[in-house]
């Protein structure tokens, strides 16, 4: 960089903006958040200026504070803003060919959902190749609490982010209310197994299989779900286990994290 470039950089500096961006970039790399003292130390900043900046980021809902008030982590606001921006289109364009290959091989439909203002929004849907099947309409809002997609999205978040999502949640039509202890047990099971496979709580005869699409920090940015239907005629279609393995590979290929959860072999 020459002298003129250095002068331009100095001329257009915005120290307060730089501090806020430094905090956001630092927290983006932290799965479990950081205390104010840790943020101050890692950024080499003054404690009082970090306090003021963090309070403004919390007030604007870019950062959330833990229930105990001593840790800070990113909210999903930046992610939600990204939904309105072309990167979401890129996610869909990258996902659709992968989803089509899954649907053709597994002979099942598949849909992709992202978190949006307290529930999930279906942003991509591919039908299976057969003459019949089940699909979720593109653009539908589905429940955060009683669906495989919702529980997987919640399971692969920090505790603070999960609390924020649940606080934003509003029930959709027909949504089943579940006990918090049941939900907590479900999160632990999903994190242990790396995915969810449960009978649908909306439709009889459907087994929902869901894997997370993980971002760089290991948190779920989307959920990939196959509403599996078992054939009972003489046609031999891929089994539930085979479809689960295919969906696992599809989700791993779309995840940005190299630490995509492994499927339990049981």
Automatic annotation (TrEMBL):
It comes from the Bacteria. Residues 77-260 form the IclR-ED domain. Keywords: DNA-binding, Transcription, Transcription regulation. The keyword NAD does not apply. Residues 14-76 form the HTH iclR-type domain. GO terms for molecular function: DNA binding; DNA-binding transcription factor activity. The keyword Nucleus does not apply. InterPro entries: GAF-like_dom_sf, HTH_MetabolicPath_Reg, Tscrpt_reg_IclR_C, Tscrpt_reg_IclR_N, WH-like_DNA-bd_sf, WH_DNA-bd_sf. GO terms for biological process: negative regulation of DNA-templated transcription. This is IclR family transcriptional regulator. It comes from Caballeronia humi. The lineage of its organism: Bacteria, Pseudomonadati, Pseudomonadota, Betaproteobacteria, Burkholderiales.
């Amino acid at each position: 960089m020459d002298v003129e470039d250095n002068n331009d950089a100095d001329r257009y500096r915005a120290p307060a903006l730089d501090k806020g961006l430094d905090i956001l970039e630092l927290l983006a790399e932290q799965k479990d958040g950081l205390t104010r003292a840790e943020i101050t130390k890692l950024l080499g900043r003054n404690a009082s200026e970090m306090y003021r900046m963090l309070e403004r980021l919390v007030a604007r809902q870019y950062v959330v504070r833990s229930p105990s008030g001593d840790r800070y982590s990113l909210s999903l606001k930046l992610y939600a803003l990204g939904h309105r921006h072309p990167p979401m289109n890129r996610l869909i364009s990258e996902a659709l060919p992968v989803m089509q290959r899954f649907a053709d091989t597994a002979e099942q439909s598949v849909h992709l959902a992202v978190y949006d203002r307290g529930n999930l929004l279906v942003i991509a849907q591919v039908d299976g190749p057969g003459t019949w099947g089940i699909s979720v309409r593109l653009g539908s809002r589905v429940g955060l609490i009683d669906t495989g997609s919702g529980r997987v999205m919640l399971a692969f978040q920090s505790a603070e982010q999960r609390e924020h999502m649940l606080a934003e949640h509003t029930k959709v039509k027909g949504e089943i209310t579940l006990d918090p202890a049941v939900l907590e047990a479900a999160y632990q099971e999903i994190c242990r197994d790396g995915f969810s496979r449960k009978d649908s709580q909306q439709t009889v005869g459907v087994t929902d299989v869901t894997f997370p699409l993980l971002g760089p920090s290991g948190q779920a940015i989307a959920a990939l779900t196959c509403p599996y239907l078992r054939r009972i005629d003489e046609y031999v279609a891929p089994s539930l286990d085979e479809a689960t393995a295919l969906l696992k590979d599809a989700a791993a290929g779309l995840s940005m994290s190299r630490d995509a959860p492994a499927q339990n072999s049981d």
